[in-house]
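Internal ticket - ligand job 113, nicotinamide-adenine-dinucleotide:
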Amino acid sequence: MNITIVGTGYVGLVTGTTLAELGNSVYCVDIDEKKVEGMKNGVVPIYEPNLEEMFLRNIQAERLFFTTNLKEALDKSEVIYLALPTPPGEDGFCRSFLCTESSERHRRNDDRI
Ligand SMILES: NC(=O)c1ccc[n+]([C@@H]2O[C@H](COP(=O)([O-])OP(=O)(O)OC[C@H]3O[C@@H](n4cnc5c(N)ncnc54)[C@H](O)[C@@H]3O)[C@@H](O)[C@H]2O)c1
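stdout (structure tokens):
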């Protein structure tokens, strides 16, 4: 199965790498160009036990990909996970505007993140 993960931080990268390990093709999308460039070159931006080994194995196997182009990833995918920040507002409750904006761009077939 082809899967997109939008937001490649602690949740997104671990989820994406694990889904690739299970045999899926996973497209990890992030707004941070530097982070994406690093991951394309095999640099794991976070530490989780055993993650680096699994990450490198799945890049090598061409099941784990990184991009800043949302549309390019979504066009290939059957399943989409959003693993985006949900920062707290002044009232302390989380805000999900990044998820709404990302979904809206997908609906409009927009290739920006
Ligand atoms: N980390 C945890 O243990 C944990 C546990 C439970 C829930 N969560 C929730 O999971 C979500 C993700 O958390 P996290 O810890 O992975 O966050 P994170 O900050 O580690 O990662 C978020 C990633 O999203 C990227 N990003 C920001 N805006 C973007 C956009 N418009 N398009 C694409 N990428 C974008 C950032 O560059 C970053 O790489 C949050 O809602 C958080 O509350 C996290």
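Auto-summary: The pocket of nicotinamide-adenine-dinucleotide is lined by residues 6-12, 29-32, 35, 83-86, 98, 102, 113 (CB under 6 Å). The helical segments are 10-21, 33-40, 51-60, 70-76, 97-107.
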